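retry 2 of 3: previous attempt timed out while embedding magnesium ion. Reduced batch size to 1 and resubmitted. Inputs unchanged:
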Amino acid sequence: MEKLAEKLKSRSFVFFGGKGGTGKTTCAAAFALRASRDGRKTLIASTDPAHSLSDIFGVAIGPKERPISHGLYGIEIDPEEEAKKYITRVKEQMQGVVSSVIIQEIERQIDAAYLSPGSEEAATFDKFVELMDEAGNPYDLIVFDTAPTGHTLRLLTLPEILGAWMDSLIARRSRAVKLLRMTSSGPKDDPIIKVLEKRKTSFEKARAILTDRSITSFVFVINAEKLPVAETAKALSLLRKYGIAAEGIVINKVIPPEAGGLLEKRRAIQEKYLAEARTKFSDLWIAEIPLLDSDVDGIEGLLRVAAFL
Ligand SMILES: Nc1ncnc2c1ncn2[C@@H]1O[C@H](COP(=O)(O)OP(=O)(O)OP(=O)(O)O)[C@@H](O)[C@H]1O
Ligand SMILES: [Mg+2]
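retry 2 succeeded.
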């Protein structure tokens, strides 16, 4: 049977998601390491505010891309930091193009937006767009280690929401421009509208990339338990609704038959959910990783996991 990693070989962006503690970081890191060993220049990017890439690779990874091992690079995106930069950037774009009274008004609006829920995700998303922008992207593959499901789904469905929000801002601004006749030629030449349109275009671009199944794919990492199986089915349909291809499932920490002893009973329980997952997700590419005798870290440990992907 062809392996999951083999199936995903032609993808440029692969997201790993799933419930907390299932093994997202481990699988994303193993997948990225394997790809880099196969000669693809690879970046592993963590979008989980509680980063753990540094721990797993044993090197300090921060908000700037840095090499981890040959052909493999890492970055930990800090949502709060990105949100601050994002706000500053938007404000700067406004400077010098509009009067100071308007700037104050806009800054108030932006600050309000910054405090509103979702702005850190919006900023993280901006960083996504930056990383995924083909013009500046030197990588063959970017692997995203994401936060537990809910957070990530919100993030991935943002372009749609932000697009609508941009539209409403543009409409509001257009009305004001027309009303006040602020420019001789109307809303088209209004600098604020230009900035908004530009942002809208970049979100649309992100959406185009995210929903292009020939380049972007989503892999769920689950354990053979009741809740993850149920939750994943729901998350899958949500992603599909937004046009994002969810093609792979990793069933991690599967207790091997020879485990014996105390684990035997748990194995029997897992069997049930394993069977359920195999049927429920039979249209996806499935990989199974056994429960290993120790935590996974370092290159050796990750390559051991990668062999199952
Ligand atoms: N197959 C496995 N066998 C044994 N231990 C494993 C296996 N896969 C992962 N682990 C261990 O399980 C723990 C959780 O894994 P990991 O950090 O990858 O999960 P996560 O889904 O990223 O968690 P979080 O939601 O907190 O980000 C780690 O200590 C890891 O070493
Ligand atoms: Mg993690």
